[in-house]
Amino acid sequence: MPTAPTEHFETASTLAIVVSSNEPLLFLTEDQKIIAASASFCRAFEINPATVSGLPLGELGGGEWALPKLASLLTATAAGSAQIEAYELDLRRPGRATRRLVVNARTLDDGVVGPARLLLAVTDVTDARAAARLKDDLVRDKAILLQEVQHRVANSLQIIASVLMQSARRVQSEEARGHLHNAHHRVMSIAALQRQLASADGTMVELRTYFTQLAQSLGASMIADPARLSIKVTVDDSVVPADVSVSLGLIVTELAINALKHAFPAERDGMIAIDYRSAGKDWTLSVTDDGIGMPEGNAAPKAGLGTGIVEALTKNLASTIEVKDAAPGTVITIRHRETTDLETPDLETDVSSAV
């Protein structure tokens, strides 16, 4: 003898799944009356499970579920003309905090013939949204603070550079004046580096723009006659992390300053070429001048601050350095290779005559 259909055409298995679900679920008739509610739904919204069966959705709780737009979407879903996916709404209850909910609903197809039935899933995202807003606020506050720090750093560097130049004009010793000029050049280079990093988007730096601005800053502070000396930059489309760009920028600065100081004596004309190329994780940086070349023997300058800076930075980048006669001039090449295990040579021997 066939079993008589029930009023809501529910099956025992469907009811059991809904009621025992760990997710807040509602099982609804086509006209939005509640067939069953999961225990997790009742706990989440503080509703007595014994009161929900047969209750219209709009009368659930204190009537807070009487939401016209939700009701309209459910009607369209039951008719097959729509499907609720990630619909967000605010559930307002007197005397309680408003909750932000994400609702998904679809018709249930479990083989039972009869009017459409709806399965409504509810996710409370109130805390997640609040955490996201807090994170956004913190990121915005951090960006504002970073911008303020960058302005202060830029101003401080300009003040230091001005003090160094004023001191250089006052001192009588040529040696002291030379040291002050060197310090001024380095401060101006760091200022250029800081400006580039401050304008960088995120944590990656585009090297072509960065090296070009660095070369312009060096030229403005150290080249009195651009018709006599120039700096040329050739860089591919490489982008590198900000910390790597700092090391590369300081290396370029030291090598360019060295060439400007030593490679073109007696008003000699010339050019410094900065070149950077990468292939995957491998890269090559070279700084070449067409000056007088590397002095030998007693004429070679002693290793100084620039040597130590280049040595330390090259080692930090897990790279090697090579100094060669460019005929005319000098080429200093720094290479980084991920594909082979390269040992950093004794840099003082290689660079002491050039930096």
Question: Would you give an account of this structure?
Answer:
There is one protein chain. With 355 residues, the protein is an alpha+beta fold. The chain has three domains: 12-124, PAS domain (Beta-Lactamase, 2-Layer Sandwich), CATH 3.30.450; 126-200; 222-355, 2-Layer Sandwich (Heat Shock Protein 90). 43% of the residues lie in helices and 21% in strands. The chain has helices at 12-20, 39-44, 68-78, 126-170, 174-199, 207-222, 242-262, 305-316, 347-351, and strands at residues 25-28, 34-37, 84-91, 99-107, 118-124, 204-206, 229-235, 239-241, 270-279, 282-289, 320-325, 330-336. The strands form three sheets. It has a five-stranded antiparallel β-sheet with strand order 2-1-5-4-3, with helices on both faces. A hairpin with a 4-residue loop joins strand 11 (320-325) and strand 12. Helix 5 packs antiparallel against helix 7 (242-262). This is histidine kinase. InterPro entries: HATPase_C_sf, HATPase_dom, PAS-like_dom_sf, PAS_4, Sig_transdc_His_kin_sub2_dim/P. It is an enzyme of class 2 (transferase). GO terms for molecular function: ATP binding; protein histidine kinase activity. Residues 243-340 form the Histidine kinase/HSP90-like ATPase domain.
Main features:
single chain; 355 residues; alpha+beta; Beta-Lactamase; Heat Shock Protein 90; five-stranded antiparallel sheet; five-stranded mixed sheet; 9 helices; elongated; disordered N terminus; disordered C terminus
Compose a concise summary of this entry.
With 355 residues, the protein is of the alpha+beta class. Helices cover 43% and strands 21% of the residues.
